[in-house]
Design brief:
30% helix; 12-stranded mixed beta sheet; TIM Barrel; 369 residues; 13 helices; alpha/beta
Length: 369
């Protein structure tokens, strides 16, 4: 199946903006077997298996449709995505649906349950692995994450590198654990990994600790100034990352260090994710609400119309008065049962328009519209 003339024209219009092409960011589940201090999933009043999640054939159909629209990347997160019993089948379905040269990634703490291995994920089609690692010290890691073993995570990182997967390490910055974050960043000295130091965000349970624990990119850069004095910049394209921020490789290091500074830097104009919740709600933007339920289009066989809606919404995002603001990863991306307003309808844009831009997602306490 190929796109019709109207859909092809919309795709060409999006390409004319020179913006990064969209990719699929799947939240696969709403549960986690960790209890990170800045996330605390189990404190959510509706936590648990309450979503009717998408199934493997759904992911396959969405990937095939996305492939027709030129998308070649899908990322899976959670919750903890590896807790899904069908996770390997989902990875395979996405890789097969998006086609050759697809980038398929996953964020995990990498303490994999019995029956899973990094090798199995690579065989299923995974091309890069994002590992959540906030301390290399077992005791400190347990204090932050509420369980797990950082050495097991490190073993998974080494296995992924040996298999040729790209590896990124995600580490949330907190003032009480800044030395732990620096130790995680130092892993890039000897490993060809991209360590991403992520500013704490003033959302969800982190609101209770934000005033005392937030530490900005600028302050951390000051602490690590000696590392960056002779550092060269590594392009995001080279690293295979789309997240905002600059990635620097200190002289003589094998890997790089980047910052995701959603709390102190306005980065929303870089956003190009189509977020898809466990139950199949697609969100091209959190503030400029254009939510759309993919289940309806799956059953009707009209996924191309759904993607036309999503790309049109992305083209229109700079009409949002909050465009250009701070990019917050909203807490309800993982728990999509929270009440949200109905998605606003959009009209296909006039062919030849060059509107572009990005999206500022709502800050804590925002309306979500």
């Amino acid at each position: 199946m190929v796109l019709d003339a109207e859909h092809r024209a919309l795709l060409e219009q999006f390409a004319a903006t020179n913006r990064n092409h969209p990719y699929l960011a799947f939240t696969l589940n709403s549960i986690c077997d960790r209890d990170c201090v800045f996330c605390k999933p189990r404190c959510m009043p509706d936590y648990g298996h309450k979503d009717t999640t998408l199934k493997v054939p759904d992911y396959a159909a969405i990937a095939r449709a996305a492939g027709r629209w030129g998308m070649r990347k899908a990322h899976c997160s959670g919750g903890e995505p590896t807790l899904r019993k069908d996770i390997l089948h989902i990875i395979h379905a996405l890789a097969e649906g998006l086609g050759k040269a697809a980038q398929i990634g996953m964020t995990t703490h990498a303490n994999l349950r019995k029956g899973l291995s990094v090798e199995a994920f690579a065989e299923a089609g995974l091309t890069y692995l994002n590992v959540s690692l906030h301390s290399t010290d077992p005791g400190r890691s347990h204090d932050i994450m509420g369980g797990g073993d950082p050495q097991v995570s490190m073993d998974a990182i080494h296995q992924a590198l040996d298999l040729g997967l790209k590896v990124k390490i995600n580490c949330v910055l907190m003032r009480s654990y800044i030395e732990d974050a620096c130790a995680v960043a130092a892993l890039a000295r000897t490993l060809p990994v991209a360590v991403r130091l992520i500013e704490l965000q003033n959302i969800g349970p982190a609101q209770d600790m934000f005033d005392t624990e937030f530490i900005s990119e600028a302050e951390v850069r000051g602490r690590l100034g000696e590392w960056f004095a002779c550092a060269g910049e590594v392009s995001r394209a080279q690293l295979g990352v789309r997240s905002p921020g600059q990635y620097l490789q200190p002289d003589g290091w094998k890997g790089s260090i980047g910052f995701i500074s959603n709390s102190s830097c306005a980065t929303c104009s870089d956003a190009n994710r189509i977020k898809i919740t466990p139950s199949g709600v697609a969100r091209p933007c959190i503030l400029h609400n254009r939510d759309i339920q993919l289940r309806d289009h799956l059953s009707a066989g009209t996924l191309d119309d759904a993607f036309a809606h999503l790309l049109t919404s992305m083209l229109e995002r700079n009409s949002n008065p909050a465009w250009g603001g701070y990019h917050y990863v909203d807490y309800d991306l993982r728990w999509d049962r929270m009440e949200r307003p109905e998605g606003a309808p959009v009209l296909l844009p006039v062919i030849g328009s060059t509107s572009g831009g990005g999206c500022a997602v709502r800050q804590a306490g925002g309306s979500g519209q």
